[in-house]
Design a protein that fits this description.
Blueprint lengths: L22 E14 L6 E9 L8 E9 L3 H17 L15 E11 L3 E11 H9 L4 H4 L2 H10 L5
Antiparallel strand pairs: 1-2, 1-4, 2-3, 4-5
């Protein structure tokens, strides 16, 4: 008999991997490289995204882009999606996987049911990170955007600009 030196009650049980909810998440690219596809008939770019904020900070999402494939439609789809990513990170002319590293964007994550592995996350689209930040941080401030005489005029006439 072999002792493994701890009490299982001291550690929470690992319940396995569960996908994150569908939604938009700011993320950074931490890994990118080109590998042969499973059938060794083409190449794909594997990209690892790490969520940078919120409840799911530090969770990883992986995406593969077909960059060469015997099926021209699969290759076109992969290249279009890679183009969308490169545009979102601000490198539309990127031609090396290293140019993607440490670049941020907003990933729109969905959930698909993989018949073999169950529910999994996939990325539906990419958007520039600045776009999300502007939408969240640039809320109009009526006090800051109102001319100083507006409040005084409104109080005097009761009609605002009128």
């Amino acid at each position: 008999m072999a002792s493994f030196g701890f009490s299982a009650n001291q550690y929470p049980a690992d319940e396995g991997f569960t996908p994150i909810p569908a939604g938009d998440y700011p993320a950074i690219i931490t890994e990118a490289g080109i590998n042969a596809n499973r059938a060794n008939t083409g190449a794909l770019m594997k990209v690892k995204f790490v969520i940078t904020e919120g409840q799911y900070q530090n969770r990883s999402i992986y995406e593969n882009f077909n960059i060469s494939h015997p099926n021209p439609q699969a290759e076109e789809i992969g290249r279009k999606r890679l183009s969308a990513l490169c545009t979102a990170i601000g490198y539309p002319d990127a031609n090396d996987s290293d140019q993607l590293l440490n670049q941020g964007c907003v990933i729109s994550v969905g959930i698909r049911n993989n018949p073999q592995y169950g529910p999994q996350n996939d990325i539906k689209k990419f958007a520039p990170l600045a776009q999300q930040q502007v939408m969240q941080q640039h809320q109009p401030n009526i006090t800051a955007n109102t001319p100083p005489f507006y409040n005084q005029q409104q109080q005097n006439s009761g009609q605002g600009w009128g």
